Amino acid sequence: LIGTVDVLHGLKNNGIFVINFRGKPEDIRSKLNISKDVKLFTVDAKRIALDILGAPIYNTPMLGATVKALKDYIKLKSVIEVTLNRFKGSTGIKNVEAIKRAYEEVVSDE
Q1: Closest alpha carbon to 32 in 12, 69, 3, 66
Q2: Using CA atoms, how far apart are residues 13 and 39, in angstroms rounded to an integer?
Q3: In terms of Cα–Cα distance, which of 84, 83, 66 is closest to 74?
Q4: Reading across the β-sheet that carries 16-20, which strands appear in turn?
Q5: Residue 18: which of 53, 37, 44, 36 has the closest Cα?
Q6: Taking Cα atoms as reference points, which of 63, 66, 102 lies closest to residue 83?
Q7: Pairing of strands 39-43, 107-108
Q8: Tens digit of pLDDT per residue, the chain (110 long)?
Q9: Whole-angstrom Cα distance, residue 37 to residue 54?
Q10: How far apart are CA 24 and CA 22, in angstroms?
Q11: Residue 100's CB: how many other CB atoms inside 10 A?
């Protein structure tokens, strides 16, 4: 989406921005000219999805990264419970694994 859509449209000062990005947070902050007032989090959701799910389905890794970014408001345990209720068997287990891995691997430049 970068370059085709204004991914920062509506982002306010002191906002939180979580992005699927393979590099360092400071690299994307510079590339997109993201204000230092914005809390920036990056995670390689594509790699996590391919490693765990075997397909480029980024939503659950991005969910894990977002939970980490919003950890004062959302509890990982709650997201895991909801995921396992929604997706049964190995699908649920793999999605939880992707969520947990992204939660652990997400990086902030704070």
Answers
A1: 3
A2: 9
A3: 66
A4: 16-20, 39-43, 107-108
A5: 44
A6: 63
A7: antiparallel
A8: 677 788 888 899 899 999 999 989 999 999 999 999 999 999 999 999 999 999 999 999 999 999 999 999 999 999 999 999 999 999 999 999 999 999 999 999 87
A9: 36
A10: 7
A11: 19
